[in-house]
Structures are given as structure tokens and as C-alpha cells.
């Protein structure tokens, strides 16, 4: 057992991106923050499933070319091999929980030629 406060970790990109509180051995648990206009590149996981629970703000999460507009209180479950792209198209930051499992050291496949659906 251990206890960790979110303030003990830093976001990957300074004031935004993922902030992992747990990285294995069974699951990954992160707080994710994106400022207005920020995004996270399209990718998929071959083994891990990914869940996002929106705590504050709004975010658009595109899954296999379908736009899903989510707000505080919404949860989205993304299966392995589903391509997903996240963008904060709104005027306030979004803060959400990301839960991925089962933990894999490397299981992110980028999709560099992803086109955002209209």
C-alpha cells in the first residue's frame, strides 16, 4: 500500500498532458489536463483498454473517426485497437482521469496520418 498526492507529480508538458500517479504493475492511472486548443496525437493500444472520466471542462475525443463531445461526469471506454485522438476545442481547460489496463511498458502505436473527421 502507498498514498500519493497528485501535487507530488508533474504534467508531462509543464501545465498540461498526462500526470501518471500509477504506472503498473497492473494498471496505469493518470490525471490528464489540456488547455484550450491543445490536443494529444492519434494513437491506439494493441493490448490496453483506456478509460477517460471527465472531472472538469469539456473535451472532444475522436474514436475510429467518430467525434465524442464529453463534459464533466462523462466516461468513455476505448477498446484495444480503436484509434483515438483528443482535442480541447473549448475555452476552458479540461481535467480528466485516464485509466489504462492491463499495464504494458510499451503499447502506444502512433497514427501520424490521422485526419480529423468533419
UniProtKB/TrEMBL annotation:
InterPro entries xrefs: Cupin_2, Flavonoid_dioxygenase-like, RmlC-like_jellyroll, RmlC_Cupin_sf
Stored PANTHER family: LIGAND BINDING DOMAIN PROTEIN, PUTATIVE (AFU_ORTHOLOGUE AFUA_6G14370)-RELATED, QUERCETIN 2,3-DIOXYGENASE-RELATED
Biological source species: Fundicoccus culcitae
Residues covered by the Cupin type-2 domain: 31-98
The organism's place on the tree of life at top rank: Bacteria
Designated name of the protein: Cupin domain-containing protein
Amino acid at each position: 500500500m502507498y498514498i500519493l498526492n497528485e501535487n507530488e507529480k508533474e504534467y508531462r508538458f509543464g501545465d498540461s498532458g498526462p500526470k501518471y500517479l500509477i504506472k503498473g504493475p497492473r494498471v496505469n492511472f493518470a490525471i490528464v489536463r489540456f488547455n484550450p486548443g491543445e490536443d494529444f496525437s492519434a494513437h491506439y493500444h494493441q493490448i490496453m483498454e483506456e478509460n477517460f472520466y471527465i472531472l472538469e471542462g469539456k473535451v472532444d475525443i475522436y474514436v475510429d473517426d467518430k467525434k465524442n463531445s464529453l463534459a464533466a461526469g462523462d466516461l468513455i471506454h476505448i477498446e484495444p485497437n480503436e484509434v483515438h485522438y483528443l482535442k480541447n476545442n473549448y475555452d476552458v481547460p479540461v481535467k480528466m482521469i485516464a485509466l489504462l489496463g492491463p499495464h504494458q511498458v510499451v503499447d502506444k502505436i502512433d497514427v501520424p496520418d490521422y485526419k480529423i473527421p468533419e
